[in-house]
Amino acid sequence: MKQTTRIRLSAMMFLEFFIWGGWFVTLSPFLTNNFKASGSTQATVFSTQSWGAIIAPFVIGLIADRFFNAEKILGVLHIIGAALMYKLYTADNVSAFYPYVLAYMILYMPTIALVNSVSFKQMKDPEKEFSSIRVWGTIGWVVAGLLISYLFHWDSKENAANGLLKNTFLMTAIVSLLLGLYSFTLPNTPPAKTAGGKINLREIIGLDALKLLKDKNFFIFFFASILICIPLAFYYQVAPDFISNIGVKNPTGKMAIGQVSEILFMLLLPVFFSRFGFKKTILLGMLAWAVRYILFAFGNAGDLSFMLLTGIALHGVCYDFFFVSGYIYTNSKAGEKYKSAAQGLITLATYGIGMLIGFEVAGKITDVYKIADNSFDYKMIWIIPAAIAAAIFLLFALFFKDEKKQLQ
């Protein structure tokens, strides 16, 4: 790959995930401070990510793979997304906010697959080349958080209370427009299939991979993948508001520690995977979820703030050791014929079904332990997902048979 192409693709990844990190991390504090939203209402808003993940395969399979160049669809989706982000910036209540965030997530989630398609098309050896480009997406997410906390200070307790978190939507709208226009300059990425080909809905949403569930180990992994998204949803939906409410300074910037950790453990993952195998690696990821929430339950913004920061820093272990390991495991189990279908099925199960359930559970638990406005029994709120993660850990440890030899 030419160096200029590498730079262009890296810039695309940077902007793609800067956009997501530029508003999603602060969404919960925004809903709390600007709309006084309950936990259940926040769950409804956060679930738009899941609906976007469920609908995304249809957008890619029915349109992107058949009729138009990926880079052109990417451009159109982000330009429309910029307009929707501006409408989120101007919304003055949840009822006005929700339709736009739903429409936005339905359009944004397919772009994750599109930036991957544009990248893979330019690579001779994706297994070696992709990670060095994808890492710029995580850097973009981190930079967005640092700007919000340390340059603009929109997430400080005073500014958040005064409604300044809505500026994150304006910033994201501008960057989304920039990426939309930039996308039309990206390398040519024509449709993967001809428009005249037969539409196979089973292939589009990964149903062809359901036969993999006949394998007991894969079924246990699949089931655990859905369940682990319940504690994952707590992190996305509750953690930013929690960190802000208890008085941690520069909360969005502190949350970015998780993405820095993600980069580090992404590099360490091959070492763990080759030395310990899939089962022990993924169990470590599950255990990390339980540990991080115990740290959240007993930490504070004062002398025990290190517990909160450690919990955030465990994000790399939580995400990489479970989800990235899971993608590798799924790829090894599927075989050439079902690789794409299997990855689509796992994505649908986790970011679609699993997160949809998780956001609903997180919202109800938050409402149950609400004491007053912006006051919650956070110890109980975090102990519950810690217990769920621990239960999934035990389930997986007992019933999943180690396949270390098979995966090497």
Keywords:
Growth Hormone, Chain: A, 18 helices, 408 residues, 2 strands, mainly alpha
Structural features, described:
The chain folds into two domains: 1-188, Growth Hormone, Chain: A (Up-down Bundle), CATH 1.20.1250; 205-408, Growth Hormone, Chain: A (Up-down Bundle). The protein has 18 helices and two strands. It has helices at 3-21, 27-35, 39-46, 48-64, 70-90, 94-121, 126-151, 157-161, 167-183, 201-204, 216-237, 239-245, 251-255, 257-298, 305-313, 315-368, 378-399, 404-407; strands spanning 370-372, 375-376. Helix 5 (70-90) packs antiparallel against helix 6 (94-121), helix 5 runs antiparallel to helix 9 and helix 7 (126-151) packs across helix 14.
